[in-house]
Amino acid sequence: MEFGYPRPQLQRKQWQCLNGPWRFCWDDEGRYAQPADITEWPLQIQVPYPPEGAASGIGDRGFHKICWYERDVEIPPGNDRVILRFGAVDYLARVWVNGRLAAMHEGGHTPFSADITRMLSPDGRQRITVQVVDDPHELTKPRGKQDWQLEPHSIWYPRTTGIWQTVWFERVGRVHIDKVRWTPKVEGYMIGFEARIVGDTLDDDLSVEVELRHGERLLARDRYRVVQHEVDRFVVLSDPGIDDYRNELLWSPERPTLIDATVRLLQGDTVLDEFSSYTALRSVTILRDRFMLNGRPYTLRMVLDQGYWPETLLAAPNDAALRKDVELAKAMGFNGVRKHQKIEDPRYLYWADRLGLLVWEEMPSPYRFTRTAIKRLIREWTEAIDRDYSHPCVIVWVPFNESWGVPELTAVREHRHAVEALYHLTKTLDATRPVIGNDGWESSATDIIGIHDYDANLDHIRQRYGGETKTEQLFDRRRPGGRILTLDGYPHRGQPIMLTEFGGIRYIKKPEPGVKSTWGYSSVGDEEAFAQQYEQLLHTIIHTALFSGFCYTQFADTFQEANGLLTADRTPKIPLERVAAATKVSATHIPGVV
């Protein structure tokens, strides 16, 4: 159960992982209001695996609304500060340290922390208690693919309750840097750097030193005065001018060049805080009907990835499993993934940054439209953008999928306003990336038109999207999935058109334990038929000039969905080399497209 540093872009040396055995109990009747009320802990759980997963040691997928965790840990007091951090807890968490309430957080997919310095016992023995409230039937909270029925049905999967990402604490100075943010600007060959400083007293003589390196090569070493608790500057690099030399430092899936950073907070010449980070020179834009990477047209070859594992559900088994998923996607010829209805663990993004894999980040949906649901969605989506803004692998934000949570877009103006508002909010929080307001159909405010079409008949695909099809005809008459592609008042404005869900071919290489029945959007009975259907489908899509990118469904079998290119345990259904050959076949046939 090895996990790397949970915040890969702000890595300090003094930290301790708190994953492992914790005391655990269910509280279905809501009897306990605080840790002192609990007199018995009948169960033990392995954090960060959710209690519904077998790897947790519990494996209970019944309906439970409340659960509790507790652990004793050695944290000696000192002259510094101790920050307790949680990667993700689903859904509403309350945290006590030595019986004192330390933190509350709502939202199942984003991190939170608490300064617990003043709560520490002087003898060094500390007790951490966590209460989690996660109503399995509540449809107004962002829940993604977590089923509200007892048994997973259709496209929904077992629930994930409670702690499902790493818990840790770290020691920091009394004055320290709380947050960093990197913004590459390829056109000016510069990188924006932002830092927020917090602490007991903020002296006037504070400065931040930023050192950037590419391997052994020093790119910059700058020092900036802290003004009003923050630093906000552009680090300008020496621009070599000609593309051949420029390209050596640009990040892409084919050449994932990272720039290593060391950041120090100083008072005069005394170092108060120091950590390592990284960034990259990379731009993503839309130019007419093409997606642009680093100022050049780039064809997106993506695969839809649910981010589930059989024994651990939404939680990754370990850091190696996250790296392996990135490596497998690349080995199958894809240059990107669409993380579907999940805010993925930052360690996945770290490996995507380091190994070179593009990521579309998508907000998990609520399934009722209420004011409460929209408030919850906005709060958590804002936190997700803030957490992942600096990862070069993240290239597109997707706040809504297939009108989930806003089911009456054609008729109810409040639903349309919600999509438009989230689109503009996202563009406000991050002006550097494209945003898809609602992926799949019924598009309004969007930078890319995403189409979901699972028709297995290749002739239908050719007729619907082939060379004889005019775009106005596509948007006026074609309705894949029975839905209009754009809402009235939002005609196609020349944005890139991408087939962002298709395929879903069911082929059972080996039955998954505990799964009673499986399905896919189409089915084949043997390995060769599966390979041929994938090859023919990808050949058709790649040779459809209308599309500037695609996303195949899906990466791996996920519980009852047996439509993965891999089985649930990540065993290839057909040789990876054959998948890659089909995924990349004639990928450069469109003039001017990489």
Q: Could you explain how this protein is built, in words?
A:
- The strands form nine sheets. A seven-stranded parallel sheet has the order 26-25-24-23-33-30-29. A six-stranded antiparallel sheet has the order 3-2-4-10-7-8, with no helix packed on it.
- Helices cover 17% and strands 31% of the residues.
- With 594 residues, it is α/β, with parallel strands linked by helices.
- The C terminus is likely disordered.
- The longest helix has 18 residues.
- The chain contains nine helices and 33 strands.
- Helix 5 links the parallel strand 27 and strand 28.
- The chain folds into three domains: 158 residues, Galactose-binding domain-like (Jelly Rolls), CATH 2.60.120.260; 105 residues, Sandwich (Immunoglobulin-like), CATH 2.60.40; 293 residues, TIM Barrel, CATH 3.20.20.
Which features characterize this protein?
594 residues; alpha/beta; Immunoglobulin-like; TIM Barrel; 7-stranded parallel sheet; 6-stranded antiparallel sheet; 33 strands; disordered C terminus
Strand content: 25-35%
Helix coverage percent of residues?
10-25%
Cα-atom Rg, whole angstroms?
Answer: 24 Å
According to CATH, the fold-level topology of the largest domain is TIM Barrel
Terminal CA distance reads: 39 Å
CATH architecture designation of the largest domain: Alpha-Beta Barrel
Keywords: Hydrolase
Organism: Azohydromonas caseinilytica
InterPro entries: Beta-gal/glucu_dom_sf, Galactose-bd-like_sf, GH, GH2_Domain-Containing, Glyco_hydro_2_cat, Glyco_hydro_2_N
GO molecular function: hydrolase activity, hydrolyzing O-glycosyl compounds
